[in-house]
Design goal:
Blueprint lengths: L1 H38 L3 H8 L11 H25 L20 H8 L6
Length: 120
């Protein structure tokens, strides 16, 4: 009987050690994931996390304002190019969606996007 209790105590110690080790590992993993999540937030998400939840106000910086100007000019340029290609007035067409192709795409990916080929 005494031998049985010693074995039971050893099993309980081992189980408790494994449980504590698992909990510590999960806690460290959660810290790593929270750090990664914070690192890759957008400006709007960062403003919300800080507590700037003013309705209708988005977090903008001077860089974002400059980027918005460039985006508006780019949309205007694309709209004018499409209108010229179709032979219509700019007022007759509406560009609803422009998807930017990832700029770090490999050359073969850019080629296939710009010049799609049909399968034989």
């Amino acid at each position: 009987m005494n031998n049985f209790l010693l074995i039971l105590v050893e099993y309980l110690k081992t189980g408790l050690l494994i449980l504590v080790g698992s909990l510590i590992s999960l806690y460290i993993l959660s810290l790593i994931l929270n750090f990664a999540k914070g690192k890759y937030r957008t400006a709007k998400e960062t403003a919300e996390a800080v507590g700037d939840n003013t309705p209708g106000v988005e977090a903008t910086t001077e860089e974002n304002m400059g980027a918005q100007d460039v985006e508006e000019e780019l949309v205007a340029l694309i709209t004018a190019a499409v209108a010229a290609y179709l032979g219509k007035s700019v007022n007759q067409i509406k560009v609803g969606f422009i998807k930017r192709i990832h700029q770090k795409a490999p050359a073969w990916a850019m080629e296939s996007r710009l010049n799609p080929k049909e399968n034989p």
